[in-house]
Amino acid sequence: MKLSGCAAIVVAGLVVVSGAGAAAESERVPGGPTAVAIMKDVDGKAVGKVVLNETPSGILHITAMFDGLPPGEHGFHVHENGLCEPTFAAAGGHFAPEGHDHGIDVKNGAHAGDLPNLHVPLNGKLILEVFSKTLHLAPDDKNSLIGGSGRALVIHENADDYHSQPSGDAGGRIACGVIVPVTQNADGFQSYPEEMPSDRK
């Protein structure tokens, strides 16, 4: 994958690489189980996709590609329920199976589902890569994103301040996507749902 105008950040067990105006070169994803979330706004319009891959090291590789988000900073979290109903309230609260408080700036933080803010440029397009040691795809793992009732990814209207309880004072929910397992053929290529938005260059 090529990234232009990239920045790398290390925060709370997450390694983050972000950039604007980038595109995926291939849908080949090596390693273990893979899952995907189609992110849609409150009008049902697809505004991006998130691909999650369990790597051989056990670290989860998350690649998020967005197009059509409002410019500015937006909170981005894994929520406890695999549901995205109108207003996205059905997604519930942040995914926090270990009972931690919210935010990396809190002594007992952070939630397993706390992810870095999205910094969306004026054109509304963004690629974000995150490596997480706390999130997993194995259904029997307590931090699994696909076990039980499933999980959802939610984007908020404002930035997460990384300390306010229970969710960083990030405001309303502007986009949501249910995390679902993805099949992989013998060549290592993924089969995405038909409604998956294509990569935009």
TrEMBL record:
<dbReference type="Pfam" id="PF00080">
    <property type="entry name" value="Sod_Cu"/>
</dbReference>
<dbReference type="InterPro" id="IPR024134">
    <property type="entry name" value="SOD_Cu/Zn_/chaperone"/>
</dbReference>
<keyword id="KW-0560">Oxidoreductase</keyword>
<protein>
    <recommendedName>
        <fullName>Superoxide dismutase [Cu-Zn]</fullName>
        <ecNumber>1.15.1.1</ecNumber>
    </recommendedName>
</protein>
<keyword id="KW-0479">Metal-binding</keyword>
<keyword id="KW-0732">Signal</keyword>
<comment type="similarity">
    <text>Belongs to the Cu-Zn superoxide dismutase family.</text>
</comment>
<dbReference type="GO" id="GO:0005507">
    <property type="term" value="F:copper ion binding"/>
</dbReference>
<feature type="domain" description="Superoxide dismutase copper/zinc binding">
    <location>
        <begin position="48"/>
        <end position="179"/>
    </location>
</feature>
<dbReference type="InterPro" id="IPR036423">
    <property type="entry name" value="SOD-like_Cu/Zn_dom_sf"/>
</dbReference>
<dbReference type="InterPro" id="IPR001424">
    <property type="entry name" value="SOD_Cu_Zn_dom"/>
</dbReference>
<keyword id="KW-0862">Zinc</keyword>
<keyword id="KW-0186">Copper</keyword>
<dbReference type="InterPro" id="IPR018152">
    <property type="entry name" value="SOD_Cu/Zn_BS"/>
</dbReference>
<dbReference type="GO" id="GO:0004784">
    <property type="term" value="F:superoxide dismutase activity"/>
</dbReference>
<feature type="signal peptide">
    <location>
        <begin position="1"/>
        <end position="22"/>
    </location>
</feature>
<comment type="function">
    <text>Destroys radicals which are normally produced within the cells and which are toxic to biological systems.</text>
</comment>
